[in-house]
Amino acid sequence: MQELQQDTRRLPESVEMGSLMDALADSFTVEIEGKRSSVAAWYDTFDWRLYNHGYLLRHGDRHWHLLDRGSGETLVTSRAGTGRKRVFARDLPAGRLRALLEPVLDVRALLLLVTLQSEETRIRVLNRDRKTTVFVEFSRQQVRGTDTVLRLVRLVPVRGYDKPLRAVRAFFDEHGITGQVPLFYDFEQGLRAVGRAPGDYSSRFAIRLDPDLTARQAAITIYRHLLDTMLANEEGILRDLDTEFLHDFRVAIRRTRAGLAQMKKVLPADITATMKEEFAYLGRITGPVRDLDVYLLKERDYRARLPELLQEGLGTFFTDLAEQRRVEQKKLVRALRSPRYRQIVTTWDEYLRSDDPTPSAQGDVPVIDLARRIIRRRFKRIMKDGRAIDDSSPDEHLHRLRIQGKKLRYSLEFFRSLFPEDEVGSVIRQLKRLQNNLGDFNDLSVQQEMLARYLRGLRPGSRRNMELAAAIGGLLTNLFHEQQRVRKRFARTFSRFGSRKNVALFRKLFY
To answer: In angstroms, rounded to a whole number, what is the distance separating the alpha carbons of residues 120 and 83?
Structure first.
């Protein structure tokens, strides 16, 4: 509760800190504790997972401090050496902090956001009995790597001494120190100084389209948002900070390709054709690393699928994958630093910012009409293809339906803001359930194909390869049986998606 009562004020540039301390000493009986230097490093994931869960994480004095963002209360303190620029949950010491953060962070890395170097002077305000009634803390904080300096004074009350606290507050009011600042002001100002702001990036696609927009205006807005997402993730890919930078980058590429395919007559035909080809190229150069990331992230799951006797044999497999990834990551970095990549994003950026007068067949259509037509067409295709699938249908039919579901999902997300949120949200939730089933089925199929290729490439003879082959064989069997279970759930899942209630909702919104 004490932290809630703290009164922190900003010192104007015109106020000299030393003179103010002298004036305080003239007005009250004080005791100066002396100067203290400290460094506070603040961390979060690129997409603000801690902040969005109501946490702030600071490293200082060789300890992690997990704070409640609303109250300032310290929830957990954990000793852990020197903070680094990148930290995964697995790097944290075992204990309560790690247990709290692991499910929040998942595969994302904690990144160093901002560092504040502070010099603080703490003064005790005493009564006649020389008991401390109020703490006054003067601080000068330099945002590392910038010229920004924060000068603050904080009044920390002592329980039972309300009258002295009021007197100290009145002193600062009389000296013009009235600019009270919110909790964690230093953190937020430090972020601003380095060009960040809490919540300035999210992997969730969320834009608001004005219903009065033309199809072209809406398409430009959508593509602009997706390009911004790609550019925001570039550095994280080049520095290989965590796997989600590439994931979000690729999702933005896929959404752009889906938009160009579904809104093919909205932009001029030559622009659409060129950018479809260029974004297909971006999909190809980013695919190998992402595929390997997916497999490497499954190491714990794969081991858990096998008897303990076979688990050790997977070690070589994941070592090989990690080496392949190092090779492919270097290729990807070269590609993203190449003139061709820079030309693609520069050309696309310039076009999206231009006022191109070139007419197109669907450019002036009201966006609401375009949205309904695209979503209606996708929904009809899914219902037709899904109803044709039975227990004897080849796997390829489910794979095609998965792609159709992805296209429908993208179009729903593009135009979500044009329709009642509760109703379109319900439609998307139903589609997600179907997508999860089809996605699981496809993933299990792809994994088996990859493992089978790897198995065929093993040379017989060595004990290591025998153990590896046994582990891969056991894993293939496990994945096959799970895929069969997922396949059996398809009919029930599709039946829910195609229920009378859900079809009626689609018709109400998009017909």
So the answer is: 21
pLDDT for 3 equals: 41
What is the third-level CATH fold of 370-511?
CHAD domain (1.40.20)
Q: Which helix (H) or strand (E) holds 115?
A: strand 110-126
H/E segment holding residue 347: helix 339-353
Task: With a cut of 90, say whether residue 386 has pLDDT above it.
Answer: yes
Task: Quote the pLDDT of residue 200.
Answer: 96
Q: How many residues does the chain have?
A: 511
The alpha-helical segments, DSSP class H, found in 146-304 are 162-174, 185-193, 215-238, 243-262, 269-296, 299-304
| C-alpha to C-alpha distance for 80 and 133, rounded to whole angstroms | 34
Question: What mean pLDDT is predicted for residues 141-159?
Answer: 95
Domain 203-365 shares a fold with domain 370-511: yes
The domain 203-365 belongs to what CATH superfamily? CHAD domain (1.40.20.10)
Task: Please report which helix (H) or strand (E) contains residue 31, including its range.
Answer: strand 29-44
Separation in Å, CA 198 to CA 47, 49, 125, 285: 9, 10, 36, 32
Q: Per CATH, the architecture of 2-193 is what? A: Beta Barrel (2.40)
Residue 296 in contact with residue 318, Cβ under 8 Å? yes
Nearest partner of 122 among 61, 62, 38, judged by Cα: 38
Q: Dump the DSSP string for 78-112.
A: EE-SS--SEE-GGGSPTTHHHHHHHHHHTTPPEEE
Distance CA 136, CA 171 (A): 12
- Domain map of the chain by residue range? 2-193, 203-365, 370-511
CA dihedral 152, 153, 154, 160 (to 10 degrees): -170
